[in-house]
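Table S7 (text form). Paired inputs.
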Amino acid sequence: MLITIVAGTFFYITCCSECGATAPTEPTTEQVIVKEPEATAYHFPKDYLKNNGIASDKIVATSKGQTEPIANDTTEEGKDKNSRTVITLN
């Protein structure tokens, strides 16, 4: 299952590599769960998953913005796309 949470920045949640799920470059309407202020953007996805029954030891969050940019950082839109965290469920 692939779920994307938009919380001021883009979050991609995939299950472990054995399941074959991959993260898209843009979320689809069906994948957008909620939009929250950017101040809570990093912790929100993990908290959301924990509050909905996913064990915290199964959640791995990795920041991707600086090491793996997906857009040009010279525009605000590009910066928003690059400010993202990938969450993997193990």
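Next pair, protein 2 of 2.
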Amino acid sequence: SGQEKVVKCYSCQGKGHMARQCSQPKRPRNAAWYKEKAMLAEAQEAEQILDKEKLAFLADLGVLDGQAIHTIILNNAAFQTEDPDTYDSDCDDLSNAQV
């Protein structure tokens, strides 16, 4: 295989440079970022071969654990109830109640 491999930046998807040399702003760490990270982790668990950029993305610890957990909770939270009054309850009523 005499074909030369084109390097692709994992941050901006541009060609000809790696993420470390990227001059573009970093990608936001939003739901899509976490989804991509999860997909790469699953691929790694399935023993698929990942290139250096994908492995570096998996190893990126740029998000604090608390921030990541908070984001996951907000994105996955589902509040369901059959009682419609639950949504109208006022927490202040509890703190003002007389003993």
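Confidence is low (pLDDT under 50) at residues 63-67.
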